[in-house]
Amino acid sequence: MSETIIYEPHPVSPERVEELRAQGFTIIDAIYDPNRWAKNPAPAADEYRQIAASLSPEPFAREPAPIKRAPGRPRKEPVTDGA
Hints:
Layout: E1 4-8, H1 14-22, E2 25-29, H2 36-39, H3 45-54
Parallel strand pairs: 1-2
């Protein structure tokens, strides 16, 4: 018996599973469909540039975190000539 593979987005409802299996299909998640890019092409580089240009850098701009000293022995005081 030759089973035909069908790519369905998961989760698949139990009713849909029964329907497809009754028709003789083997169900595999749609993310594994080798032809998924032919059906839904990836955005072109120009589209990515437009999206990036529209984003505001403000949510990502932060002040640098203060430098934390490692716990341990305290630093020595500098030596002076007593002057």
